[in-house]
Amino acid sequence: MSEPEFYQTIEQPSSAEFKDRGSRFIAYTFSIQSADDFKNYLQQLKKEHPKAVHHCFAYRLGTDSNNFRVSDDGEPSGTAGKPILGQIDSKGLTNILVIVVRYFGGTLLGVPGLINAYKTAAAMALQLTPSVQKPITVRWQVTFGYTQMNDVMRWVKAFGCDIKEQKMQLFCKLIIDVPRSRMNDLKNLFGDMRGVEIKNVQ
């Protein structure tokens, strides 16, 4: 089976609110690249909603389907994090975080009511943000002499690479994210250029 070349994610954050018997469930979606991004967004929302009783969430990272996390944050087990993740997965998204903040309205909703509320709030927020297709990339380091900069940069642009870091001195170094679909072409091209070295960095 060939490895996928693209993944689906969201570009813009969104939020939506669902109410049930006085309780308010406010769902927020974020595009994330790492678990650190997730921690920052969670802290931010806890500051914004200090009186909320629960901050439940689910996130998924990467394309190997093993990197995810869910939290019920004190709600009965399985009533919040899993339904939120279910909505992420039903849209086939990754590199995404959904946090649902709950304000308690005085009436217990029971397990089915909670599952429905978290699922609905997450679904509503996800409907408000369009999903985008992005290329799966591999990170490379390219080193070359200053005189070759124009050639190297021209190919980096032509192949749709994303420059993450650059040091331009007598000897130059680039850290680039190369679309997986163009990887071999670019490797061969740079391999044929004298004085250009590439190596994989993760």
Commentary on this structure:
- This protein is α+β, with helices and mostly antiparallel strands.
- It folds into two domains: 6-133, Impact, N-terminal domain (Ribosomal Protein S5, domain 2); 136-200, Alpha-Beta Plaits (2-Layer Sandwich), CATH 3.30.70.
- 30% of the residues lie in helices and 36% in strands.
- The chain has helices spanning 35-48, 81-90, 110-127, 149-158, 183-191, and strands spanning 6-10, 14-20, 23-31, 54-60, 68-71, 96-103, 131-135, 137-145, 162-167, 171-179, 197-200.
- A five-stranded antiparallel beta sheet has the order 2-3-6-4-5, with helices on both faces. Strands 9-10-8-11 form a four-stranded antiparallel beta sheet, with helices on one face. The chain has a two-stranded antiparallel ribbon with strand order 1-7.
- The longest helix is centred in the middle third of the chain and has 18 residues, at 110-127.
- The model has no long low-confidence stretch (mean pLDDT 95).
Brief rundown of the structure:
The chain has 202 residues and is an alpha+beta fold. It contains 5 helices and 11 strands; from the N terminus they run E-E-E-H-E-E-H-E-H-E-E-H-E-E-H-E. A hairpin with a 2-residue loop joins strand 2 and strand 3.
